[in-house]
Amino acid sequence: DMSDLESSRIDHARAAQEEELMLLVHDPSPKVILGMLDNRNMTEEHVLIIANRKNLPSEVLTAIYQDKRWSESYPVRLALARNPKTPLFTALSLARFLRLFDQVDLARNQLVPAIFRKKLETMVSEKIPSLALGVKKTMARIAGGEILLALIKDGYPEVVKNCLENPYLVEAHLYKVISHHTTSPGTIRTIADDRNWSGRYHIKFALIRNEHTPLARSALFIPELKLLDLKDLY
User: Both ends of the chain: CA-CA distance in Å?
Assistant: First the structure.
C-alpha cells in the first residue's frame, strides 16, 4: 500500500543517520521531507538542498524558516529568499537580513514575486546616498530596474558611466531620467557624451530638450531629427 510505504519512509527520515539523509533530501514526498526536518542528525548541507528545491510546497520552506537551528544560517536565509515557493511574508521578513549585493541580485530575479523585488529595490535605493563610491561603481555594473535609476540620479560621473554600460539599462528608463527636472547637469552631460546612448533617436530628442545638454552636442543632434520633431522643438 502506497500510504504504508510513505509512512515507513517518513519514520526512516525521522531517525536516519547523517549519511543516509543525503539519499532522502530529494524524496518527492513533502511529508518525508518534513519528517527529515525533525531529525537531529540534519546538517546545514542537507537543509540547503531542501531550501533550494523548487518542487516543494511552501509549508516545508516555512518549517525551515521557523526552525531555530537554521534561522540564523545566512546560506539558508539566502536560499529561502531565492526560492519562488517561499511565502511572500517570509521572503519579505528575510529581505533585511540579506547582504547588499545579494539584495541587488535578487531584485533582478524574475522568478521571485514582483512585490518582493520592489521591496528590495526600495531598500537598496534608500542606502545609495550613504554608500562608498567604490561600492556604487560596482553596483552600477550589475544592478537593474529602480536601483539602476537611483544610481544614475545619484549623479557621480564614474557611477553614471558604469550605469550606461550596464546591460540591464532600458532606453525608456534613461529617457525618464533625462526628462526629469531633478536630474543633475553633470549626469545629463555624461549621458550626452555617451556615443552609444546619445546615438539613439529618443534619447537624442530628450537630450536636446534638456537645458543642461552642452550646446555643441545639441547642435550635432539637430540635423538628425525628423521634421515634425524639429517643429515641436521650435
Answer: 83
Contacts 24+ apart (CB under 8 A), 21-25: 21/46, 22/46, 25/49, 25/50
Geometric angle at alpha carbon 116, from 143 and 137, rounded to 5°: 15
Half-sphere exposure of 86 (CA within 13 A, CB side): 27
Diameter of the chain measured on Cα atoms: 83
Using an 8 Å Cβ cutoff, are 63 and 40 in contact? no
Kindly provide the b/e burial profile for residues 22-35, where b requires at least 16 CB atoms within 10 angstroms of the residue's own CB. Answer: eebbebeebebbbb
The pLDDT tens digits of the residues spanning 73-130 come to 999 999 999 999 999 999 999 999 999 999 999 999 999 999 999 999 999 999 999 9
Sole residue written with cell 529568499: 81
Query: Which grid coordinates belong to 95?
Result: 529581505
pLDDT in tens, 213-228: 999 999 999 998 899 9
Place of cell 518542487: 55
Mean pLDDT of the chain: 93
Cβ neighbours around 144 below 10 Å, total:
21
